[in-house]
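Key result, reporting period 2: structure in, sequence out.
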C-alpha cells in the first residue's frame, strides 16, 4: 500500500477516492514506524479524521463500519500503550514462526513444544550456575539449541537513542548538519580498496567539501606549494567500500551490482534562499578519509553521490497531491538524468535521509512524457 497503491491506481480513481487513498497511505506511513513524534501522531489523527469524513460524504453513513470508528482511537491508543509497532499482532505471528521451526511429530505439538521450553530453561539454569566451572559451561553450551538468526538481532547493539541522535543529523540540517566524523549505529561493508587514491576531479570536490564544512582553507596535497599560507593538505588516499549498514538497513552503491537497487537515496539540502528541499541520488561508493585538523586527526565517513534532476515545473513534480498541498502525498516525479558533478556530490553518510523505490510513470495522453516516480521508504522513523 505504501509503495505501489498510489502510482498504480491514481489515474484510475475519481477525485474523492484519490483523497481517501492519499489520506490512508499517509496514515500508514506514519503509524507503522518504530519511532514517531507527538506531532506525527497528531498529523495521523488529522488524516484519519479526513479519511472517515470523505468516506461518509461520498458513500453515506452506512459505510462507516466499526473498524473506521476504531481507527480514530489509534493515536490515543499509541499515547496510552506506546506505538502500534510494540503491541500489534506481528510479533505474535513472528513467535509462531519461530516455534514452528522446532522439530516435532505433528501429532502432540503443544506437549512437545512445552518439553522443548522446559529443556532450554533447565539448560539456562545449569549454565547460570556453572560460571565457576568453565568445562561444564562449555559442555552445556554445546547442548543448547542455536538461536535463530534474524535481521532484528542487529538492534541489540544500539538503543533507540542512538538511532534518534543519528536521525536528527539528516532531518534537522537547518540547526547544523553533520561534519562526517560523528559516530553512527552501523558499519561499512564490502571493502574494495584499503588505500586507494581518489581520481583528481573527486579529490578537488573533497577539498571543496572540507572548505565549506569547516570554513578553513584546504588544498589537495599536489597543490600545497601554490596554496594559501596555513592551508591544510588533503591526502588523496581513502578506504573505499561498496555498502553501508545502518541498523538493519543496507545501503548499496553502483560498485556492487547485487545491491544497486539499494543505492537510491534521498538527502535534504539548504538552498541559496535558506529554504530546504529534498533531492534524490544514486550512491557511487562509500569511503573513509582522514584529515589532519592540526588539533587532531579525524576520520570522516562519506559517500560519493550523483544527483538526479527534478521535473520541469512544480505541478508535474507534485503530481500526486491533493489541493496543491505538497505534504498530502510523498510521491514525486523526477527526470532520469544526473546533474553535473559538483561539491554536493560528497556528503557525510549521516545526511542520508532514506532510500526510495522508483518506477516509470507517464504524464499526458497526446504527447506523454516519461518520468521516474519516487516513493520514499521509512527508516523505522516517521519522515
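The corresponding designed sequence is given below.
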Amino acid at each position: 500500500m505504501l509503495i505501489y497503491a498510489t502510482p498504480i491506481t491514481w489515474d484510475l480513481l475519481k477525485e474523492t477516492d484519490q483523497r481517501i487513498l492519499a489520506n490512508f497511505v499517509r496514515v500508514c506511513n506514519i503509524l507503522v514506524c518504530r519511532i514517531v513524534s507527538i506531532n506525527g501522531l497528531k498529523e495521523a489523527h488529522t488524516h484519519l479524521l479526513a479519511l472517515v469524513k470523505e468516506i461518509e460524504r461520498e458513500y453515506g453513513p452506512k459505510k462507516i463500519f466499526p473498524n473506521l470508528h476504531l481507527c480514530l482511537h489509534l493515536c490515543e491508543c499509541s499515547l496510552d500503550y506506546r506505538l502500534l509497532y510494540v503491541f500489534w499482532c506481528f510479533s505474535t505471528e513472528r513467535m509462531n514462526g519461530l516455534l514452528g521451526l522446532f522439530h516435532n511429530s505433528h501429532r502432540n505439538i503443544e506437549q512437545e513444544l512445552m518439553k522443548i521450553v522446559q529443556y532450554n530453561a533447565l539448560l539456562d539454569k545449569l549454565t547460570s550456575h556453572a560460571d565457576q566451572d568453565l568445562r561444564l559451561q562449555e559442555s552445556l553450551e554445546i547442548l543448547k539449541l542455536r538461536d535463530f538468526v534474524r535481521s532484528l538481532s542487529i538492534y541489540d547493539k544500539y538503543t533507540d537513542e542512538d538511532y534518534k541522535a543519528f536521525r536528527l543529523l539528516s532531518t534537522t540540517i537547518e540547526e547544523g548538519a553533520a561534519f562526517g566524523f560523528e559516530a553512527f549505529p552501523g558499519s561499512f561493508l564490502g571493502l574494495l580498496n584499503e588505500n586507494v587514491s581518489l581520481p583528481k576531479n573527486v579529490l578537488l570536490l573533497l577539498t571543496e567539501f572540507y572548505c565549506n564544512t569547516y570554513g578553513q582553507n584546504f588544498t589537495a596535497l599536489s597543490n600545497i606549494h601554490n596554496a594559501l599560507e596555513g592551508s591544510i593538505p588533503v591526502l588523496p588516499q581513502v578506504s573505499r567500500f561498496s555498502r553501508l549498514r545502518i541498523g538493519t538497513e543496507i545501503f548499496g552503491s553502483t560498485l556492487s551490482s547485487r545491491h544497486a537497487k539499494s543505492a537510491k537515496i534521498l538527502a535534504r539540502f539548504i538552498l541559496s534562499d535558506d529554504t530546504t528541499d529534498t533531492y534524490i541520488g544514486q550512491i557511487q561508493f562509500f569511503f573513509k578519509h582522514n584529515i589532519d585538523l592540526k588539533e587532531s586527526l579525524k576520520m570522516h565517513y562519506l559517500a560519493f553521490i550523483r544527483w538526479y534532476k527534478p521535473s520541469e515545473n512544480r505541478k508535474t513534480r507534485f503530481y500526486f497531491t491533493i489541493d496543491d498541498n505538497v505534504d498530502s502525498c510523498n510521491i514525486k516525479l523526477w527526470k532520469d538524468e544526473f546533474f553535473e558533478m559538483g561539491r554536493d556530490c560528497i556528503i557525510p553518510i549521516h545526511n542520508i535521509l532514506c532510500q526510495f523505490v522508483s518506477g516509470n510513470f507517464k504524464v499526458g495522453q497526446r504527447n506523454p512524457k516519461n518520468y521516474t516516480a519516487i516513493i520514499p521508504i521509512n527508516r523505522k522513523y516517521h519522515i
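The first helix runs from residue 5 to 9. Confidence is low (pLDDT under 50) at residues 148-156. This case is discussed further under Risks and Mitigation.
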